[in-house]
Amino acid sequence: MGNVPDFQRGFNIHGDLDGTGLKIGIAVAKFNLFVTRKLLDGAFETLIRHGLKEDNITVVWVPGAFEIPLAALAMAETGNFDAVVCLGAVIRGETSHFDYVAGESARGIASSSLDTGVPITFGILTTDTEQQALDRSGGKHGNKGEDVALVAIEMVNLLVGINDSMNEDI
């Protein structure tokens, strides 16, 4: 993220990581709060560090990962957000519940983004163990919340760049 490929042919469009003036929504699951709170902290601080004002970040709490797509869609449809960041943690148990929740959450988020044209980023950890979730929410594998916050900013700016380039005489 943020790295611009070295490709000098044709007309290249890239999104930058300047969040100044953007409004971002965050849909975060309360289930597995010991993980999702860390994801939220990482995402929120990353957005601030990249130019967003605290007042331009809205956090919506949902019961679990399965409910995230509907909340993200509702936020995107208001027209008040440039992007929505989705944060959750689905940790495998002994039943097939994990597969349904993880798959439907991913499908719902992708569908909501495509239907609205608003960048909606996927920050739902799908891990086999609690330790793997902790490792990816500020542990030895970084913080996925930070990563998807950066993706949200970059995608907003990329879409602006695409729109602007199509409205210019090239």
Determine the CATH superfamily of one domain: Lumazine/riboflavin synthase
Number of strands: 6
Strands across the major sheet, in which order? 2-1-3-4
Question: Rough shape?
Answer: globular
The CATH first-level class of one domain comes to Alpha Beta
Q: Indicate the low-confidence ranges by residue numbers.
A: none
The span between the termini is 27 Å
Order of helices and strands: EHEHEHEHEEH
Which topology of one domain does CATH recognise?
Rossmann fold
Q: How does CATH name the architecture of one domain?
A: 3-Layer(aba) Sandwich
- Note the total helix count: 5
- How much of the polypeptide forms β-strand, as a percent range? 15-25%
Biggest beta sheet summary: 4 strands, parallel
Q: Share of helix among residues?
A: 40-55%
| Overall radius of gyration | 16 Å
